[in-house]
Amino acid sequence: MADAEDAAAIEKYFASLGRKPSEAELRSIAQLWSEHCRHRTFRGRVVGPDGTLLADDLLSTFIGSVSSAPWVISSLRDNAGIVEFTRGYGIAVKVETHNHPSAVEPFGGAATGVGGVIRDVLAVWADPVALIDVLCFGPPDSPALHGALSPRRVMGGVISGIGHYGNNVGVPTLAGAVVFDGGYLGTPLVYAGCVGLVPPGGYSKDPRPGDVLVLVGNRTGRDGIAGATFASSALSGDIKSLRPAVQIPDPLVEEGLVRLISAVRDARAATGVTDLGGGGLAVAAAEMAHEAHAGCELILDEVPLREDLEPWEILVSESQERMLLSARPEEAGSLMTLARHEGLEAAIIGNLTDSRRFRALYRGAPVVDVDMDFLFHPPRLTRTAVPHVTESEDEPLLDDLRDPGAELLRLLSSPNISSRERVLRTYDLGVRGNTVVYPVEDPAGGHNDAAVIKPLDDSWEGIVISVGLRPRYSRLSPYWMAASSIDEAMRNNSAVGGRRISLLDNFAWGSPERPEEMWSLLEALRACRDFASGFGAPFVSGKDSLYNESEYGPVLPTLLITAVGVIPDVRRALTSGLKSPGDSVYAIGVTRAEMGGSEYFEMKGIRGGSVPKVRIDESRSAMECVIRAIDQGLLTASHDVSDGGIAVAAAEMAISGRVGLELDLGRLPSDGTSRDYQLLFSESNGRFLVEARAGADEELEGLMRSVGCRFSRVGSVVREGRLVIRGSRDVDLGLRELEDAWRRAPW
Amino acid sequence: MVRIAVLRGPGTNCDRETARAIAEAGAEASTVSVLDVESGAVDLRSFAGLVIPGGFSYADRVRAGAVLAAKLRTSLRDAIEDLRSRGRPVLGICNGFQVLVELGVLPGIDGCRAALAPNSSARFEFRWIHVRRVGRCRLSAGPDVQPMPVAHGEGKVVFSDPRCAEELESAGLVAYKYSMPDGTPAGGIYPYNPNGSEADIAGLCSPDGDVLGLMPHPERAIHDWQVPSALGPAGGISIFNVLVNIASRQMRSEELRRI
């Protein structure tokens, strides 16, 4: 049990100093040693039920080992990962969760989540250029559980919080997803991500003893007290009483910080920067000192306050929109001038020392005085993992469909497939004028697989941003859940033309003290290593959010994979809508009888079945076919096949392009399928539907043969606004019918 | 090269792409902080033209925060009046349009006050729409019909008097109207008219032709790659070309007069 071990370590340490710890020391240590800040589980050991060691340091073993590639500039170290873009520019990227605050106070919780992740990207000297948000809620029609807000309330607040903050700060919200499942009823998840651009030579940090520490931005108040420890425990009790742990968002100040950090970087007026996130000033200052192999001394009286605070409160408050900079003493003046020019308050609140001690003074007396080594070496935890039996892997075989069209319409209006347009349009998708592929495609409002931005005026190169998550597969196999999430994120990226992909992992799990949770975490981590390595896509950043629990149990284990790719010429980027009648449509990749965890089985109320596997060679060559065809200008539309299978992908392409489509199920590359419903609705990985440019069929087929991907010409775009899928019984539906079903959002 | 000021205040966030559009139109864009205008460090009257870009809270502050609002109201209004008195152009986009309306610079005819009310949909909305160029504004420019994005929660043009729309239209002071993709009137139909504006009004021009304000974002529709492929070519640069041309001509004639 961590708490007892920690308490013993703290007692022993202070006994060696011959004194009792102060309140400020205890509070600061609690934040610094929290799961949120120190990743105690991910840095710990895991043993099996018989005590055998299964893994030692999960982060190094499963993620660190697959975190390098020639284009990686910084991975898993700083506040955000950084990869090369072009001509010396770097792409910074970070994704965070803000689950507990969003469950308690959806608007503020989600908004501050966005603010926090923007500051993570600022903390590697990047200019934010795009936001990501992925939201997981209980089924939209569920009533509120006792002690929790209803999914609809949470969703409404979260979505407006994200829009409010992102739109005000002026960063487009471009990638994301909304997922509904009963596994989120007690514990909704809110992931917020940010992509930034670092100019050539901009990423430099050299904090040294003697540097002054400058706190800029908002004043410090009593909001968000002890947020990091709040985030590291289960939600319990009356949620209203937890409100003080949620911070207050102010995007106007953040907008000033965005401009300030960029100006400070360009003027080289600071030696280091970090954001004040979980654990507040105590954590930010300690981590900056740690990075400088130094100590620090804070003068708490110098911290600008919004209200009277105790010294410990000053140390651990999580008031938003604050950043900590280090500067050579002679540069401090110009730093303060730059801050004033943005209308921001700045104060020198201490300095880095060569003592390797963390000291904080209040009214002339030390309130914290501890060794840095002690602060950064909490006792290592040992967790136990016990495999638990998952549901049957056998694929149940259903009778084939009497009316496949009716089934498709039902799927299109199901919560996880229906249109997200109403949500997406509340975000400013075009601010900064750099968006090339929007998440929602006008005029029809169809959805694209990934977003593309062109951040440099004098380069056609673009950044491609996508996400993948298949949480429902967790119930069958956490290993294949993780593998499928990676495959989905990467094929979404490839579908628009992204390549040279880097990945981020964001785990949202229940308590790691539960052996079965620990086991599923280990399984998912194992898949991360196997498939990042198999796909040659490094993990550059990530975060684990554990203790997502309520009195209704642990959250559905959810791994969000974010993929960041590049495209050499944004003018080649593809959207998913069909373009021209007469064009051929090809299916790439193999459809299998893998219905386990599918939207179709969910709709039918069938649990169990064979979960989709990932076959690295097949997926890789399918992605390569698409990317090379895009580069050679052979395609006019492309869409990944995912939730709801081929039938849903085909309907989405027709809806988005406002033209008809005729497909022949019999021509689909398949393996081991025996029923039409499998061909229509299976969610096998590694598949695309693409539209060939008129006259390019032969060249495209030649290319795909030479790459070696499984493909087949399955149909063509037709003028008449109908979707026809020929099988033992045909799907034959008008576009209007399809669109009405798809837009009939049940939420 | 003439210098055009792009005003930014706390919460302005479209200044980067606006400055870029001005530069592409051949002028030097200077992004000027409201704080510098207030402190007197920068004099807006030294510029050949002024663009108030989109963003969020600036207009809200004009409406809300009393002291700051009073200060900004006077200093900004004075600067705008001064620029206009010399025939130098002023353009307001999105929140910048809201500011011009708040300050009473637009619509600028007696008996008509306008406001940008919450969208009929009652929410912020991003969407590509089409606008048709109408009226007789010397600052309005571009193809007859062109795609532009809107991104606002409060963009519904409403008037103090129901006759205002007609009056402004017959005076040629309605510069842009929301339209169907083929240029026929949107007729108030959502989403072609995205916010429920009276008479499909998307942009207004002052009677002297020196001030143009519009809700859609021409600065985000400069290049074809910014525009969804189904919507046709980008035409947003023309507004900035005309702005820069008028500003340059004006500066030359002021120069000549001085000589």
Provide structural commentary.
The complex is a heterodimer of chains A (747) and B (259). Chain A is of the alpha+beta class and 747 residues long. Chain A has 23 helices and 35 strands. The longest helix of chain A is centred in the last third of the chain and has 21 residues. By secondary structure, chain B is α/β, with parallel strands linked by helices. Chain B has one domain: Class I glutamine amidotransferase (GATase) domain (Rossmann fold, 3-Layer(aba) Sandwich). Chain B contains seven helices and eleven strands. In chain B, the strands form two sheets. A nine-stranded mixed β-sheet of chain B has the order 2-1-3-4-11-10-9-6-7, with helices on both faces. At the A-B interface, α7 and α9 of A face α1 and β6 of B.
Offer a few descriptive terms.
heterodimer; A: 747 residues; alpha+beta; Phosphoribosyl-aminoimidazole Synthetase, Chain A, domain 2; 60s Ribosomal Protein L30, Chain: A; seven-stranded mixed β-sheet; 33% helix; B: 259 residues; alpha/beta; Rossmann fold; nine-stranded mixed β-sheet; two-stranded antiparallel sheet; 7 helices; 11 strands; globular
CATH topology type of chain B: Rossmann fold
Low-pLDDT parts of chain B are 61-66
Proportion of beta-strand residues of chain B: 15-25%
Oligomeric description of these chains: heterodimer
Mean pLDDT of chain A comes to 94
Main sheet summary of chain A: 7 strands, mixed
| Distance between the ends of chain A | 42 Å
Order of helices and strands of chain B: EHEHEHHEHEEEEHEEEH
Strands of chain A, total number:
35
Q: Give the C-level CATH assignment of chain B.
A: Alpha Beta
Strand content of chain A: 15-25%
Unreliable runs of chain A: none
